[in-house]
Amino acid sequence: MQIGLWSNYMSKYRTGPINTTRMPPGISFIIGNELAERFSFYGMRGILTVFMTKHLLDSAGQPDFMGEEEAKTIYHLFVAAAYFFPLLGSLISDICWGKYKTIIILSMGYCVGHACLAMGDTSIGTGLMEPRMWLYLGLAFIAMGAGGIKPCVSANVGDQFGKDNQHLVSKIFSWFYFSINVGAMVSTLLIPVLLAKVGPWLAFGLPGVLMLIATIIFWAGRHRFAHVPAAGWKSFKEETFSRDGLRALLYLSPIFLIFIPMFWAIFDQSGSAWVIQATYMDRQFLGINWLPSQVQAVNPFLILVLIPIFAYGLYPLVDKVFKVTPLRKISVGLFLTVLAFAISGWIQYRIDGGATPNIGWQFLAYVVLTAAEVMVSITSLEFAYTQAPKKMKSFIMGVYFLGISLGNLFTAGVNYFIQNEDGSVKLEGADYYWFFTGLMALTAVIFVFMAMFYKGQTYVQGEEDDTTDQAPPEGSGEA
Q1: In 120-166, alpha helices (H)
Q2: Which of 68, 106, 303, 453 has its CA 20 to 30 A from that of 473?
Q3: Phi and psi of 469, rounded to 5°?
């Protein structure tokens, strides 16, 4: 009966990419869904630290603010959870439901999470449960929803391409990332204003509405894009433990679970440590008095600027001198991350000395960090998809996102363990930044040597035997 129902479901939709040399149909619905969903996620995440330290109340309406280290710990635990659930979502997708059904179902739970956050700031909500419980419940639902759909959405983009248009995969992942950052930039500018001027109920409620719109957009395009069916447990197990599956896990796991986590341990502090740092800075810059949470909008704005510069200018130019491979991009990006956090360490050093540096210095750190993101994050997304065997696309994407979770768990652990019982911290002021800068530098150096030994294979959707050996991808495994 189950098999019959699944066959009837899949018979409604195309299960493979169209043979075309152009962009496949349905991409606009996937991109539109991602834009609205990322508005939802980044709008909520952007104000989370400020909400916990400046706006959180108890059921009596009295301040129940968290301390800075506690708020950073909760923030990074949430982000870690949001990037742990991609692994579970990928297993559900690859084995049971397929990508489309997984995205639709988990997106509804995502909407519930936003509703919980908004309820914690209403009289009805506080009458039913403590605001902190609404906060934790909402974050749990959002982590499961946002995390669960994440590998499915990314892999679903790649599923639309076959052998005739696989040359467009790099460009579409850049545009996919472009849409993410349009949504992130708009929400990061708007939602902090709503938090300051109206209150948490609307600041959390509006992202929930956008998440509902994202779900509707994706549903509306269901007849336009390919629905690659779930492989089933037997097929998934055979693929995972096959020679190709084990080789992919052997070579990709060290990259995604050791080196990439340290990048995200640094990068995601732009939403916690850098927001708190901004509260101690002169935020009058470019004729605008920036709210601490709004400064994060610099990152998605710069992404929109740097993606075409890197894709159509810098990479082709450098490629004339030496081959620009994915692992070389990642290597350079890791060293840029070192520089970005060193700049924030210098800013904190000046704050510790009694100065009030202008927020423009943090803007400079964002420029360097965003360049690193273009080279590490976008490349890793594409790399995770192209290096995964065809029936393991979502699972390998889930392994990549697990690395982001591990990075945030590491940061949460550091912030938890540096707290002393008397309220002081072990890594005071700039020492906190120098600690992470040193770890990032060590990680980048080791990655260069590791990348020299990478051997991989590229897999694309399409005909059964459509794979391309590469050792390593794009010509060389050299860093």
Answers
A1: 123-128, 131-159
A2: 303
A3: -70, 135
